[in-house]
Amino acid sequence: MTSELNGAAAKMPTIAAAGCEEILRVQDLKVHFPLTKGIIIQRQVGTVQAVDGVSFALQRGDTLGLVGESGCGKSTTGLAILRMLDPTAGRIVFEGEDITDHDKERMRPIRRRMQMVYQDPYGSLNPRMKVRDIVGEPLEVHGEAHDPAAYRERVDRLIGLVGLLPDMAERYPHEFSGGQRQRIGIARALALEPSLIVCDEPVSALDVSIQAQVVNLFMELQERLGLTYIFIAHDLAVVRHISDRIAVMYLGRIVEIAHRDELYKRPLHPYTEALLAAIPVADPEVEARRPRAIVKGEVPSALKPPSGCRFHPRCPKAMDKCKTVDPVLTDLGAGRAVACHLHVVPA
Amino acid sequence: MASSLLQVRNLTTRFNSERGRVIAVDQVSFDIGPGETVAIVGESGSGKSVTALSIMRLIPTPPGRIETGEVIFEGRDLLKLEDAAIRAIRGNKIAMIFQEPMSSLNPALTVGMQVAEPINLHRGSPWGKAMELAKELLGRVRIPDAARRLASYPHQYSGGMRQRVMIAMALACQPRLIIADEPTTALDVTVQAQILDLLKELTRETGSSLLLITHDLGLVARYADRVAVMYGGRIVETAPARELYKNPRHPYTLGLMASVPRLDGEAGRPLVPIEGQPPDLAQLPPGCAFSPRCRSATDPCRVSRPPLVEVGERHLKACFNDIRA
Prior knowledge:
Chain A has twelve helices and twelve strands. By secondary structure, chain A is an alpha/beta fold. Chain A has an eight-stranded mixed beta sheet, sandwiched between helices. Chain A starts with a helix and ends in a 9-residue tail after the last strand. Chain B has helices spanning 48-55, 83-89, 101-104, 111-123, 127-140, 146-149, 159-171, 189-206, 217-223, 241-246, 251-259, 299-303; strands at residues 6-17, 20-32, 37-41, 64-73, 76-77, 94-97, 177-181, 209-214, 226-231, 234-240, 309-312, 315-317. In chain B, the strands form two sheets. An eight-stranded mixed beta sheet of chain B has the order 6-7-8-3-9-10-12-11, with helices on both faces. Chain B has a four-stranded antiparallel beta sheet with strand order 2-1-4-5. Chains A and B meet through helix 7, helix 8, helix 9, helix 10 and helix 11 of A and helix 7, helix 8, helix 9, helix 10 and helix 11 of B.
C-alpha cells in the first residue's frame, strides 16, 4: 500500500494556479512517531501515523489554509515543513531547495525565510524578557544586531508594523492582553523578513471581538510585505476568510484541496461536507434552512487508522470499496483535488 | 411573567480579589420559560459563567458572594434556601453540564456509578435499580454497548463520549432545567454538532428548559429561542433569537456580529473588529461598560449607566443611542 501511495504522489501534478512562482512544495510527507513500551529496554509497539502522505504546492503570496479536527496532523505538517520535526518520508522543497535532509547548520539560513506564529500567546513569550528583546531576539540569534542604533530602529519599526505603540517596547508580556501578545509574536516572526509564515491556530485562544483585529492584521501584513501563509486552524469560517485555497485534513491525510469558494459552494468529499454542515452560521434564519449532515462517531486513533478510506467508518456515503481500497488524492483540474471513490473516475 | 420556570431578578455577584472588589455579575435579570432554550452569550469576563454558578449557588464563598437578587424557581427563591434544600434541587430539578467533562467526572469511579448516583441520591432508588436506569440513560445518549460501558472508567471514554455521560447524568432525574456552560468548547466541531443536537432533542422530548452559556454566536443562532448578550457583567441586550440577529440594537451586539467571519459570508473582505480590549472588571468605567470601545458613544454614555429598556416585543437593550444595523 505504501509503495502504491508513493507512486501516486510522484505522479501528482501541481495543484496550484499557473503563472506564479512556487515557494513551497511538499511531496508525500510522512511523520510517524514510534510508540514504545518499557523503561529500560524500550521496544517499539506501534506507530502513530500523525502525517501520512501529504502533498501540496504553494505559490508565493498565497495563503493555504489547513483545516481539520484534532489529531488530523495539521500542526504536525506545519512543524515538519519548518523542520522542527523530522519527516519520516517525503520531500519538502522550499524556494527551490530540497530541505528534507538538511541538518541544523544548513537549516540556519533557511529558518530566516520561514517563521512560525503559535497558538498560545501566553506560553510562547518569555515572561522575563521585555517586548523589545523578544522581538529583537531573532536578529541577535542570526547576527544582525551589531549596530545598536540600526537594531533599535528595526525593532521599533517591527513594533509599529503590528500596531503596537512605541512605549510598549519596554514592557513585559504579562502587561499585555491576549490579542496584543499575539501581535508581539507576529512582530517576532517578521523580524528576519521571512517569506513564509506558518500560523498555527493563531486566533483560537483569543476572544471573539479580538480575533477580527488579528485576522485583519495578518491580511494587511500579507498585502504590504508579500508574505505567504500556511494558516492552520480548526475554525473553517476563519480559515475560509483568510485563505486562497484550503486543504481539509483527516487522520494524517489531505482529503480535499480546493479554492476557498469552491470548497464552500461545492464540497466534494463527504468529510468536507460534514465539516461545513457542523459549523453553525450566526443567523437563525439561515440555520433553519441549512442541511444537517451529521457524521457518526469521533475521529479514530491515528495509532490504528481504519482500513481503506480512513473516513469510511463515519461516512454516510461509504460503499463496499471504501472499506478496502484507500482512495488516492486525485487532481480534478482547476486547482482542485479530492481523495474519494465517489469522485474519481476509474482509470 | 407567571409562566416562567426560572426568574432571575437583579442578580449581583461580587468577588473580593487582590485588586479590589470585582462585580462579576451586575443587576442581571432574565426569565426562562418551560421548554425554552435561552442562551447567554458573551466573551471571557462577561459574567456569563458566574451567572450560571450563582443560579446554582455554586459560587465559592469567600472570595465570592451573591450580593443581591432573587432566583425564583418553581415559586421559591433559591438564594434563600438552606444548604440541604439547594442540594436537593441541584442535579435533581436543575442539572448542570460543564465545559470540561474530564474534570467534572470522578476518575476513580465507574461511569455507571456516576450516572446512577443522582438517581440513588435524589430518587432513593436502590443501587441495583439505579444501575438499570443508568444503563438505559447511556443508551438514550447513544453510547453504544451501554451495558458493558457502564463498568468503564472516564479515561476509557473519548471527549465526546464523556460529554454524553455528562448529559446522561444531567438527565438522570428528569430535571426541569439544564444549565450547559460551554458544553462543547473542548470538542471537535463534528462532535459538537452531535452533542448539541442530542441535548436539544432530549430536552424537547422531556420538556426541560435549557440555559446555554456560550461565546459562539453560531451556536446561539442554531439552538436558542431567546438570547441575552452580556458585557462587563451586565446584560446589554436581550431578545428572541431571530429578532436579535435581524434587528440588533446594542452597538456591542452589532460589533460582535460584524467581527465574526461567517461561513456563508463574502470571504476575504476585511472584518470590522471591535477596537480595544474587553473590560477589566476591577476598573469598569462609571457609565456604560462598553463606552470606551463604542463608536457611537456620547458624553452621557461615559457618565451614567444606561438601563435596559424595551425597544420591541421582548426586546430590551441598555444603550442611550438609537442604533440600528
